[in-house]
Write a structure and sequence with these properties.
Blueprint: H1 2-7, H2 11-27, H3 31-41, H4 45-71, H5 75-94, H6 101-121, H7 136-156, H8 161-173, H9 177-201, H10 207-231, H11 233-256
Length: about 260
């Protein structure tokens, strides 16, 4: 009884982190839920990003493992994309002082509406895998460019990285949305882990809270990845549209405040 009473203050936060993990496993965008949730819980802004990275890394690891195991990409292919994603995220983090965040947000306001409209209009988007129409080298070049470019953005700003990766892999490489989401989860994990290492080094993580919420995030990611693997593009595509629309509204709100 005492244990339950002690856990009660964390229950609303844990439920929101679970929901964020569920959504994030399918379409990305979990940070749209977790960051406000941590602030409402009373977490210091100085520890916000680092603690969120810890819990999201644990959750994303579960989804990434399940997706990659089921979709079976080649190990060499994945290794190259991981290296490019790590390099892109590191360079993006270093470039923060060179590119004002407001500039990136304005660019997203231009780019996000076409993405949302495309997802809403193309009912068959991501249902079939057409990646074999590209040669092996061409596919690697396209995938590598996406990995580096979007991870650079992740290091620079971050919101919606998993969504952008999934849509880009499906649209530009021809992967079905299930395989595109698998790659997105793996590469998002790489860039998140790199950021987490920096936050831990700087002492900007509430490790106890992050680990506790990481358990909720892992459960949410497991449930979300299970549904995505079962339903495929039929659940991923509308969820991507919803996350894109939510991200657009958040960025517009941040600019107008």
């Amino acid at each position: 009884m005492e244990l339950f009473s002690a856990a009660q203050p964390w229950l609303p936060l844990a439920l929101l982190v679970f929901l964020a993990g569920f959504v994030d496993a399918i379409a990305g965008g979990g940070g749209l839920i977790t960051l406000p949730a941590y602030l409402a819980h009373g977490l210091s802004p100085a520890l916000l990003l680092g603690t969120n990275k810890l819990s999201s890394c644990l959750g994303t690891a579960v989804a990434a493992f399940r997706f990659v195991r089921e979709t079976r990409f080649g190990a060499d292919f994945l290794f190259i994309l991981i290296v490019l994603a790590a390099g892109g995220a590191a360079l993006g983090a270093k470039a923060i002082s060179l590119v004002p965040p407001e500039t990136i947000r304005l660019l997203l306001l231009v780019l996000l509406p076409p993405v949302a409209i495309f997802l809403a209009a193309r009912k068959s988007f991501g249902l079939a895998d057409t990646s074999r129409r590209h040669s092996e080298n061409a596919l690697l070049r396209r995938s590598g460019s996406i990995s580096f470019g979007v991870s650079f953005y992740d290091g620079l700003l971050g919101p919606g990285t998993g969504t952008f990766l999934a849509v880009a892999f499906a649209r530009l490489c021809g992967f079905d949305l299930l395989r595109a989401t698998a790659l997105a989860k793996l590469l998002n994990l790489v860039s998140n882990a790199a950021a987490l290492a920096a936050f831990l080094w700087l002492g900007m993580v509430d490790v106890r809270l992050g680990l506790a919420m990481g358990a909720a995030g892992m459960a949410g990611n497991y449930a979300g990845s299970h549904l995505a693997l079962k339903k495929g593009a039929w659940i991923i595509r509308p969820m991507l549209f919803a996350v894109s629309a939510a991200l657009l509204l958040k960025i517009a709100w941040d600019l107008l405040r």
